[in-house]
Amino acid sequence: MTARKAWRRVDGVLLLDKPTGMSSNSALQAARRLFSAAKAGHTGTLDPLASGLLPLCFGEATKFSVDLLAADKTYEAELQFGVRTDTGDADGAVIMHCPVDFGESELAAALHRFRGPIRQIPPMYSALKRDGRPLYELARQGIEVEREAREVTVHELRLLNFSGDRCRLRIACSKGTYVRSLAEDLGAALASAAHLTALRRVAVGALSIVDAVTLDQLAEMPESDRAAWLLAPDTLLQSLPAVSLDGPAGLRFVHGNPVTTAALPGRCRVYADACLLGLGEVDEVGNLRPRRVLSVR
Predict the structure, then answer these.
(1) Which residue among 11, 17, 47, 67 is the active-site one?
(2) 146 or 111, which is more confident?
(3) pTM of the predicted protein model
(4) Per-residue pLDDT tens for 125-152?
(5) 168 shares a domain with 121
(6) Maximum separation of any 2 CA atoms in the chain, in Å
(7) How does DSSP classify residue 206?
(8) What are the phi and psi torsion angles at 113 (to 5°)?
(9) At what angle do helices 179-189 and 104-112 cross, to 10 degrees?
(10) 138 and 185 belong to one structural domain
């Protein structure tokens, strides 16, 4: 009889380099087992087709996972022109063939139209919901519904290389940007078609793929070495200003009470004696109110 796994409290952030062909939840559960973590969550899904940076949260860090959902993302994408699929990526069925009658200069000129604030219609194969049902469920049944265009921002759109009917792009964009839709729209702008053949996420906010580890690497190392890959829970809050409290004020804060501070209004990460207490928000008159507080061991 197989012994039940002993789960334990693990607090921290793991920068995982997710492989292609694996869902974000499957990657999360695999990492959770490697760390024997009792509680785990991720900071937003990465499609099975895509590889790259997937920040995972264990224990108390899960309280701050939502704060990374709104962060900008950076991708390296591979596109094929002349072919359109029903999903906008290589997993879908081919529904259109078009000629590719443009060169690198025309492609570079077309890219300019997709920099800055743009409006996108979300794809049918997405997790957005209509009447409580994900759009991809409707799409699999051959049902297409009207979707409202949404504004997103493309901060960087750089051509890495172009050869024949394929190109590689570097894309830095705001939350809610669909790279598949960007590929299709770019193909249409060139009087052709396009779909995404590969996607790799290389950054989420200030977090970079260069600091990430793979599941295979974790599995091969001794269990005692894995903890070195865990970052502190406040890794997810580095974009926020820090506020330090003295002992009595820190105690009031962790018990859910507001304290007075000279900090500027807005959200902040709160410390006492260099230890993270949680996430707070300062109002216009200097009241610092707890929003999410860490549990004390």
Answers:
(1) 47
(2) 111
(3) 0.90
(4) 767 777 777 777 777 877 788 888 899 9
(5) yes
(6) 71
(7) T
(8) -70, -15
(9) 120
(10) yes
d(CA 3, CA 188): 56
Tokens encoding 10? 């693990």
Give residue 69's pLDDT: 81
Distance separating alpha carbons of residues 94 and 107, to the nearest angstrom: 23
Handedness of CA 18, 20, 24, 25 (dihedral sign): negative
Q: Is 47 a catalytic residue?
A: yes
The predicted pLDDT at position 80 comes to: 98
Helix/strand/coil for 60: helix
- List 101's β-bridge partners, or say none: none
- What is the identity of the amino acid at 161? N
**Angle at alpha carbon of residue 14, lines to 9 and 62, rounded to 5°:** 55
Query: 81 with 189, same domain?
Result: yes
Overall domain count for the chain: 3
How large a percentage of the chain has pLDDT more than 70?
97
User: What pLDDT does 121 receive?
Assistant: 87
What CATH number is given to the structural domain containing 174? 3.30.2350.10
DSSP element (H, E) containing 187: helix 179-189
3 state DSSP class of 215 = helix
pLDDT tens per residue, range 177-196: 999 999 999 999 999 999 99
Task: Give the SS3 label for residue 52.
Answer: strand
Spatial contact of 108 and 98, defined as CB atoms under 8 Å apart: no
Pick the last residue of a domain from 235, 251, 285.
235
Count of CA atoms in the C-beta half-sphere (13 A) of 289: 8
Q: How far apart are CA 46 and CA 23, in angstroms?
A: 7
Q: How many helices (H) and strands (E) does the chain have?
A: 7, 19
